[in-house]
Amino acid sequence: MKALCEKYAAKLAAQGLASGTGPDAPLVGGLDADLTWNREDPRTGELAGLFSRLSINSLVFIRPAEPYRTILDFLAARNPDGIRPEDTETRTFLHDIPVCADFTAEAMAAQLKRRKVIVIPGQGVAACGTVTPEQGFVSVSSLVFSSFVLFFSDYLNRARRVELDDEYADAFSHVVRLLPEPHTDLPGLAAGPFTDEEGVVAAMAEAGRKVVGYGLVDSFFGNISYKLDETVYISQTGSSLDELEGCIDPCPLDGSTTNGLTASSELSAHEDVYRRSNYDCILHGHPKFSVIMSMDCERDDCPNRGHCHIHCTECRTVDGVPIVPGEVGTGPTGLCHTLPPAMAANGAAIVHGHGLFTAGNNDFNAPFARLLEIENRCRDLYFDRLSRYA
Amino acid sequence: MDEFYGRTGMVLHIDLTTGTATPEHPDEAVYGRYLGGRGLAGYYLHPFADREYTDPELPLLIFTGPLTGTDSPTSGRGTILSRSPLTGAVCDGSIGGGLPTRLKKAGYDGLVITGRAETPCGIEIDDHDVRVVETSLWGTDSDAVLHGLERQLPEDTSLACIGPAAENGSLLGSVAVDHRHGGVRGGLGLVWAAKNLKYLTVRGSGEVRVHDPAALAEAREAIVRLTMASPVLMGGHGFSHWGTGALFDLINSRRMLPTDNFQKTFFEQGAAVNAAALAELYKPRDHGCLGCHIHCRKIARDGRSLPGFETMAHFTANVGNADPESAMEAADLCGKLGLDPISAASTLACLREITGQDYTDKTLLSTLRAMAEGGDLAKGALNLAQACGRPEAAMTVKGLELPAFDPRGGYGLALAYAVSTRGGCHQHAYPISHEVLRKPVATDRFTFSGKARIIKLAEDTIAACDSMNACRLIFLAAGLEEYAKALTAVTGQDWSVQSLLEVGERTTVNERRMNAGNGFDATDDDLPGRFFTEPGTSGGGVEIPPIDREKFLQARRNYYAVRGLDENGAPTTETLQRLGLDQ
């Protein structure tokens, strides 16, 4: 259990969600017969009280790194009754994010007995699990992503409506100053085409690591696939894109087996893209500014407002890259219906509030380049659009 | 039903000796502590848990939960519970179809059936009209009973019955519910037979009141969204598309498909009998329980029910049969005879290992028929193996035959099998969820590290699910976080993940204390010796060694510690006091 605690503490740091060392380094606790922590810290005394109050086996606590710390503290102060982002991650998995005023086991337990992750303003973020510390890691990472999207989306909307106040403007400019510079270099991924399973799996694993490393997705989001002959190789559901070895399912397109039961929830969408086009591979990330721009719309009077993620009927694009509605999976409003035709026609598409898909031939170099290019373009567009109002 | 939300407030006691039905209105506190379904049924079993199945005082319990009959997703579930004639342990069965919904709408949270009718009888419930009637259907198979009753009764009536197996005293006697929704294990059909009860029909015209329909709609939306995002449930390879048979290829490729009575863990001819092969042969249509959007049941074009994963796997790989039609026939015959197909197939596999004789199409079916007629075969794998002087050939825990997942391929599964209150059962903790299906996150299936508490928490979660009466499968997508919101909306009471887990813990420990009272101890929380001494079938990059005995025992000790049990597996006084089970 201690090894798992240390692993996820390290991943939080590696992904820039928390400091790797010092008093703000993550605290990850795991309980089987005995409670263990990844490191010693005075706060584990209070946090241990959560294990006696809740039926959990793991806990992740972080003081987020900047700029997430500023964002979360700002949003929590503005929304003391809870933060409600509207991106897909939140709609599907988080629902809403409670704000807990006190760093006491009693107060935190009162919120965590209902929700998987909470924000404690000025203190940090806590998330629990009943299976492994990975659950807390996923929740914390989802929260940070969703909060970032909400902070920037809300700022642009308020600017458009001339509702900005000095406090928000100050926080925003502070956060913008802390944003990392966008990547402009390309990683130089293995050249295809790949002709056997071993080559495919190695190329997918390499692409996954780079997509995470470039900040184009948090490790467990997104998915990657490659079509070799009539078999689609795709990352497994909930797999970490930076640890794909052993987590790729071969799924024959003829439906002769159901081994794809553990494949990504987007398998159907990937398969349909391949059926409709000549592409060989697909990358799907959750680059933050692509998601933010997918949700930005000036039509306040639209009858679909509030249901844009499933009912948007506008033909919206980012420089020609279509933005389509659709929820995760294969339901009647699933992106499996909207994404494939858009991808087949354009080689790239953004799903509203969700993320960016790009396709390519032979290997992942072109789709990776396009992923990065679109995200950087969305980042520029965001500030261009903002400059019209503020 | 005017005063209550999510429940009727009425439990009906039916005494088959006198033919009388007496309503009871349980205290509010009882509902708060046990909720419904499996939890509440366990509460009613406890005072009589030491009775033999032949004792008329042993209750047969059929309970709904607070979500049953509401718009909460997968709400059409209920529980049958009693003491197992096969194992002597507490045994629950989750049932679906329409029966639980109609029982609730008839005005009952549950039925407590005791006594013994002088002649074979049926119970017929039509709202508040409850009749115990003599029947001439004794001796007829399940299909004949259900089809016959359907012709006589209004279309919106649900039906359950036993078949000839239970009537003939088979310890593998099951219960058919609305044709395809029984799956009751542990020989609970024999409890019906011991009471001379052949069938139950239920029609209900009432409505289940919901405190806050708008909040329930919001909770429903969140649960459905998670379901749609689940590749296991709704994906192109998922249960909704293929039925639970979708597991066949995956479990086989993970080298954990019981083959030749668990002597191997990989079935070479798997492609001939997997879900895709069955779909090609039988062109099935979808079928589901009331209140469910997943529709995991599949009905062949000829009207037969397509076997679920466990039944199909056991009637093929575990008995060395690569013919899908003979497996279909065997499963169908189990349904007609009222045999638990998992136990029946596992007993066949045990017999095959002992005799060394393979089955033909004909002997597979004739042996099943013999199983339903009495004798050693009718007593399950453990009794059969002991009678043959080969007890090691019985792949059972607490006398209940193991389902189609090999524990050498998942150490959480191994622990879950061992400690389950009803015996060889993976469903009380469903570690397949994280050890194979990666939900809610993946765990290392070849380690016991952390598994003790994971299994304890999963048992509590599923017991809570069974007490609300939602389908266990939906917890491959949604969780108690979402269901607590649904339950709060339905009942108007404030439920959280934590309070639901406390109900689940009380339910499980209540079952543990009943088993302990009946003499179950640590020696019963164990696996067949084969799993500690023989490897599985390695290959495909996966090695399947025997389970390390010492590591297993340490994990079991850890489980006892986190569950609040003593070294014999019985609840400590402190645990009973904490859960209010000491009175």
Automatic annotation (TrEMBL), chain A:
A Pfam family (short name) is: Aldolase_II
Start and end of every Class II aldolase/adducin N-terminal domain?
Answer: 202-382
Naturally occurring in which organism (per UniProt): Pseudodesulfovibrio methanolicus
Highest taxon of the lineage: Bacteria
Keywords linked to the UniProt accession: Lyase, Metal-binding
Q: What is this protein called?
A: Class II aldolase/adducin family protein
Residues spanning the membrane: none
UniProtKB/TrEMBL annotation, chain B:
Q: Which cofactor does it need?
A: [4Fe-4S] cluster; tungstopterin
Sorted alphabetically, which Gene3D superfamilies does this protein's record hold?
Answer: Aldehyde Ferredoxin Oxidoreductase Protein, subunit A, domain 2 (1.10.569.10), Aldehyde Ferredoxin Oxidoreductase Protein, subunit A, domain 3 (1.10.599.10), Aldehyde ferredoxin oxidoreductase, N-terminal domain (3.60.9.10)
Identify the SUPFAM superfamilies for this entry. Aldehyde ferredoxin oxidoreductase, C-terminal domains, Aldehyde ferredoxin oxidoreductase, N-terminal domain
Give all residue intervals belonging to the Aldehyde ferredoxin oxidoreductase N-terminal domain.
Answer: 8-206
Instruction: Write the record's keywords in alphabetical order, separated by commas.
Output: 4Fe-4S, Iron, Iron-sulfur, Metal-binding, Oxidoreductase
Which PANTHER family does this UniProt record tie to the protein? ALDEHYDE FERREDOXIN OXIDOREDUCTASE, TUNGSTEN-CONTAINING ALDEHYDE FERREDOXIN OXIDOREDUCTASE
User: What family name appears in the similarity comment?
Assistant: Belongs to the AOR/FOR family.
Please give the name of this protein. Aldehyde ferredoxin oxidoreductase C-terminal domain-containing protein
- The scientific name of the source species is Pseudodesulfovibrio methanolicus
